[in-house]
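User:
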Amino acid sequence: MTPTDTLFAKLIFTVMLLASLGAFVYLMRRRYQVLRAARQIDRFDRPWERLKKVLVYYLGQRRILDPKHLGAGIMHALIFWGFLAVSINSLHLIGRAYIPHFHLPLFGPESLLGAPYI
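Assistant: Predicted structure:
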């Protein structure tokens, strides 16, 4: 049994989902308007170099894993990576509210990543 088995529960879930998405869009639109007023720069130059920096600094947490504060950096990185794992599970829960056997690619029950994750 899942919490969204009944029609009433699905209705409440949908209303809450739409309200939270509406609040998110409203806040992002306000922030986007502030950014549009700023000076324009080209952020699409050197795409491979920029992608490498995203992987190293964002996903790899390079700045946080500084040898000077390695203990705190490792704890921060583990919390960050745990948050990413929880975010994937949140997407599963939202999808399963509407489609009972929903799963993201590579995270299904029979897939290599899905069996230990689910």
